[in-house]
C-alpha cells in the first residue's frame, strides 16, 4: 500500500533519500528535480514524530511507502486458497446417480405347487406359511377315497368292454355252441342293435348247420332242439312242406327288404341334408374369407399410413407395434379360420362319401333281397324240384348275411379295442394320481401364499389356483423400476448402491451391485405405478447386510431403493461449469 508524506522523521535528507535519526533509509523516495534544489520544509516542533499526511506543494516530490507485511500475507493466502480450491474442484470426483425403487426377488422362479388332476380333497397340511422346507419333504396329503373309486370304476368299465369283445370273437367263430352264445348274450348288457345282429347271426348259423345235417354232412357239436328236429323230419318226409319253408323265407326276405328300403330312404334323406350342409360350409368359409381379407387390407392400409409417421418421430413406436400386431393377428386369424374351414369342409365331404357308400351298400342289399325274394318265389312255385343245389345256395346266401353281420361286429370289435386303449390310459392316469396323493416339495425353499387346508377342494378350471408357492433358496436380485426420463443413462454393467428400506442406511450401510439387465420396453401405468417405467435388474455382490460381526440375511419381497451410478468420473468443477452452461443457454432462449 502506498502513502503520500511531506516530511521525513528528523528533518534531514541526503542524496534524495529520506533517512531516520540513525541514518537508515525508511523507504524509497522518488523526487522531482525541484526537490533537489529546494530543501524540504521542516516542522516547527522538531521533536514530534507524528506521521500525519501533509499537503504536498506542487513543487515537492511524491513519496511512496512499501505496504505492510501482514496485508501481503492475507492477499497471498486468499490467492493460495482460491487456486487450491479450483484445483481440488477440477480433480475431486463426485458421482452422478439415478434413483430407483423396487423389491428383492429370487433369481430363480417361484415354484407353484398345483393340485392333482382329479381335484381331490385335501386331507392334511403339514406345513404353514413361512416354513422352510427341504426338497422331497411332504407338504400336503390328499384323500384317496375318490381316486380309488374312480380307479375301480375305470377297471370295471374296461372289464365289461373286454368281455363284450370276447363275446364278439366267440360269436364269429365256427365251432361255438349257439346255446352258450345265447347265455353269454343274456349276461352282457349289449346295445339293442348289437343284440339283434347277434341273434340274426345265431339263427343263420343254426340254419346252415341244419342244412348241412340235412345233406348228410357231419356237424360238430350239433344239438338239435325240438323245432329243428321237427323241421328236419318234415324235410325228409314231405317235400311239400318245403313250400311252407319257402314262403317263410319269402316273408323273412320281404321283412329284410322293407328294413333295407327304410334304411336306404333314410340314407338318401341324410345325404341331401349333408350336401346342403356342405354347401353352407363352403359359402360361409368364402364369405368369411372375403370379410377377413377386407379387414386385413384395412389394417395393412392403416399400418402403411402410420409407419412413415413413426419413422419421423410423430408417432410412438408402441403404436406402430400395436398396429403391426393387429395386422399379424388378422393374418393369423385368417390362417386359422382357413384351416378350420378346410377341416370342417373335408369332414363334411367325408361324411357325404360315407353316406354314398352306405347308400350303395343299401342299394346292393336291396337288389340282393329283391333277387332273393324272386328266387324264393320261384322255389315256392317249384317246391317239388328242390335239390341239393338249392339247399347249398341257401347256405351260401346265409353265409353272405353272416359275413355282413361279421363286418359290423368287426367294426364294433375295433371300436371297443380303441375304447380299451383309452380306458387303459385313464386307468394309468388314475393310478398315477393315487401315487401322487402325497405332494412333496420339488425344491428347497420357503413356503409362501399357502392356500391349502384340511377339506380344501381345488377348483376344476383351466388355470387352477396353486395350493402353495415355494420361494427357492437362491441368490436374490434387486428388481427396480427406472422412470422414463432416467432410462437413457442406465446401461448394463453400471455399478449401483442398494439400500434396504427395513434397515437404516446410517446403521447397516448398503449393498453394492451391478446392473445385469435393462428392460427393452416401458411398462404401462397401473394401479400401483402411475407412470411409465422400465424394469431393471441389479445383481448383488453379497446376499446379506453386516453390522459388526453379525450377518443379516435378505428376504424375498423386501422393498429397496437403488442408486445407479451413471457417471463416476464427474468432478466438482463440472457442477459449476454445467450450471454456467445452462444459465448461458437459458439467456440464449430468452433473447
From TrEMBL:
Entry GO CC: membrane
Keywords recorded for this protein, A-Z: Coiled coil, Membrane, Transmembrane, Transmembrane helix
Chief localisation class: membrane
Family: Belongs to the membrane fusion protein (MFP) (TC 8.A.1) family.
Pfam families with a match to the protein in the record: Beta-barrel_AprE
Keyword Repeat: no
Coiled coil regions in record: 359-386
Disordered, as annotated region: 1-51
Biased composition (Polar residues): 32-51
Compositionally biased region (Low complexity): 1-23
Domain AprE-like beta-barrel: 477-566
Membrane topology: Single-pass membrane protein
Protein name: Secretion protein HlyD family protein
Location(s), subcellular: Membrane
Entries under InterPro entries matching the protein: Beta-barrel_AprE (IPR058982), MFP (IPR050739)
